[in-house]
Amino acid sequence: MSSFETVFGGMPKVTAQAPGRVNLLGEHTDYNDGYVLPIAIEQKTSVSMGRNNRGEYALCSHELDRMVHFTLAEPPVEHFAAYVYGCLMEARASGIETGPLDIYVESDVPMGVGLSSSAALEVATLRALRALTGSSLDDLRIAQLAQHAEIEYAGVRCGIMDQMASSLAGTKSALFLDTRTLERRLVPLPPASAVLVLDSGVARTLAGSGYNQRRAECEEAALRLGVTSLRDVHDISKADTLPEPLRRRVRHVVSENVRVLRAASWASAKEFGALMNASHASLRDDYEVSIPELDRLVALLQAHPDVYGARLTGAGFGGACVALCKPDTLQPVARTVLRDYAGAGFNGRMLVPPSDGAWVG
């Protein structure tokens, strides 16, 4: 099994980690200056670094079994390396110079399922750079640099939710975040509830999906409505003057912001679950980012008597579903739902919940 030591012939100077996240409510609202409610997961990405004198950066991914060499003047062509390269460039623009590095990445954050493996990689990379150089970057600034790196160098016009969750959230409480002001507070899960995440078995890539198209549609809708962003639309009827699909895009964003605000105001498990169910319907019908596999998996979860509510999580177009369940029921719920999902011809899996009481209200 490879490690930094076996690949590069020495010990790393620093190692830093960052978690993935699951978003409980607030999908496709962050790039509209709206509200979100993510929670960190136990799975993490680890980035180890050491300086070298070879005149180029060497980046090794344990999971992908890939080694990439590049310089800051000649960026890597491999997509996974673009995230690291972007962080190096953003750090340099902030005055952090390192010279060539050996970089080793390993992660147990599932990729391609909507749990923000890219944000975990970015935040871990920037944390490692902070440790290596003694930089004064705080966790908020790290999240901002990570977002810029993904937009400018990975080609995903993401909001800041994923990076804020990876940099600032914990596994004990959700992070209620106003993505316009970056005001935030921790919100406990509803009493007598626990979080379950299931993978639909359909991977998705944001850069190649309809993600950027949805963002462009929201920007066009905001322009037509004469507002800075859809955050500033509070009356859904204002969208009635817009053509389709812009009217439905606005309806999702406005209603999703309301759902997050309600959930963050001490909703009961039953109320929280109903908000999750409504969120999925909106993502499916108004925002059109669901797929048949996600709809089937969510429907099976919603029909289970020990589930309060369920929805797709992440940007959609594949990936994972999140459910709010009764405590101590996660394993039996997962077994039953995945059995019926397989019976319908699909191949899903449980993304292992934490064992230390996290994700439990």
UniProtKB/TrEMBL annotation:
Q: Which residues form the Galactokinase N-terminal domain?
A: 3-50
| InterPro entries in the record | Galactokinase, GalKase_N, GHMP_kinase_C_dom, GHMP_kinase_C_sf, GHMP_kinase_N_dom, GHMP_knse_ATP-bd_CS, Mevalonate/galactokinase, Ribosomal_Su5_D2-typ_SF
GO terms, biological process = galactose metabolic process
Keyword annotations for this protein, in alphabetical order, are: ATP-binding, Carbohydrate metabolism, Cytoplasm, Galactose metabolism, Kinase, Magnesium, Metal-binding, Nucleotide-binding, Transferase
Q: Could you give a GO molecular-function term held by this entry?
A: ATP binding
Q: What residue stretches are annotated with the GHMP kinase C-terminal domain?
A: 269-337
Family statement = Belongs to the GHMP kinase family. GalK subfamily.
Query: What's the name of the protein?
Result: Galactokinase
Q: Which organism is it from?
A: Nitrosovibrio tenuis
